[in-house]
Amino acid sequence: MQKLGFEPLHYVNEKEICQKHSCFMWTFKQPVRATNRKEPYQPTFCPECKREDMEREQLQMVGKAYISSILSNTFEVLARNSLMPSDMKDASFSTFTVSNETDEHAKNFALRVARHYFKDGRGNAVIVGQAGRGKTHLAIAIAKKLNIDFKANNNPKSVLFMNVPAMFQKIQSGFNKKDARTTDEWLDLLKKVDYLILDDFGKGDQSQWKQDFLYNLLDSRDKTIVTTNLIGKDMVQIFDASLVSRVAKGAKEMTFKYPDSAEDRRTLPF
Question: Which molecular-function annotations from GO does this UniProt entry contain (predicted)?
Fold first, then answer.
């Protein structure tokens, strides 16, 4: 009687043991050809290692599909996925009050940045100044204007605003949680978004893994807006020189620095 089913393509090789899993290796019964070998050979592999590789590839595919689903509705990314201060949700160019010449220069610079990117300009933009000068307000205004203008022009582009300290807190809170977005998924999203705003760059502790994360992110981008309290000489004392150079990439003509005498725009109730 003819046997039904399939003959296994491999056999248990009891002469070889996987050092990682302490199990017998499997070896192909028939020789196969490979582009990097002149003669056919019989591959040997660990079934547990292979299973782990397949699970890892499956998770990566799920992660990529998740990021693609986020970016599919590009105009919704800003409102849905941004991390911005709750008291700045209504920030825009129309709500930015101009009280002095510095405010006017800062607003005109931000409008120039928005026009530059809307016309497919490249290179990073950097806004430097002490706390309370209006950097975050203008950065959100740029993000909203880009999103509105691209939508009005029926040109699908994704814009994302990220407060850097809040972003790292969100990433760290997901460590060891199965249902949380992984660090690689965060990095993939931030790399793929068309226009990214990194607010409060340099605030808080700057551990090496954070610097490595930011370097990997900025090394792959050429359209990122950065707001920071740090001037160049302070930044190079905190960050690796390679990271600082990525921040400054293409920003020679796209940098605005508030003068030290600039007024604090915040009003205190006491």
Answer: ATP binding
Edge-to-edge order in the sheet of strand 159-163: 159-163, 195-201, 224-228, 125-128, 255-257
Q: How far apart are CA 134 and CA 32, in angstroms?
A: 65
**209-261: pLDDT as tens digits:** 999 999 999 999 999 999 999 999 999 999 999 999 999 999 999 999 999 99
| Residue 159, beta-bridge partner list | 195
Arithmetic mean of pLDDT, 100-113:
97
The pLDDT of residue 139 is above 50: yes
Question: Are 35 and 106 in the same domain?
Answer: no
Give a three-class secondary structure readout of the chain.
CCCCCCCCCEEEEEEEECCCCCCEEEEECCCECCCCCCCCECCEECHHHHHHHHHHHHHHHHHHHHHHHHHHCHHHHHHHHCECCHHHCCCCCCCCCCCCHHHHHHHHHHHHHHHHHHCCCCCCEEEECCCCCCHHHHHHHHHHHHHHHHHHCCCCCCEEEEEHHHHHHHHHHCCCCCCCCCHHHHHHHHHHCCEEEEEEECCCCCCHHHHHHHHHHHHCCCCEEEEECCCHHHHHHHCCHHHHHHHCCCCCCCEEECCCCCCCCCCCCC
CATH no. for residue 239?
3.40.50.300
Residue 156's domain spans which residues? Answer: 74-257
